[in-house]
Amino acid sequence: LFMQTDITGLDYYDKMMKQVKKIEVKTSTLNTFLTKNNIKNIDFYISDTEGYDWWIFKQLNLKKYSPKFIMMESHSLGDEQRSFIKTKLETNGYTIITHSWDTIAVKGVH
What we know:
The chain is α+β, with helices and mostly antiparallel strands. It contains five helices and four strands.
């Protein structure tokens, strides 16, 4: 549901905000995660990280892991980010199936 009205100050908003808790979550880069977990091969790379997909994808070493199938959300990215993704895929031997709402690419299919 998309809210078009400012709800701050309303009773239910105040009650909801009292329930919100701040927590710290450990994060890592993609490469750190792959190395730490001894991941040697990726068959499917799927990413839907609300606009951070290109940031994570640029960390992925396609020569080392060479996923057969790549899918990531790309509709919210800027032209420069979308161009980066397209170039990286094409220069690493991927065929782009679609590059609109999502980007979908496969390795070695022409």
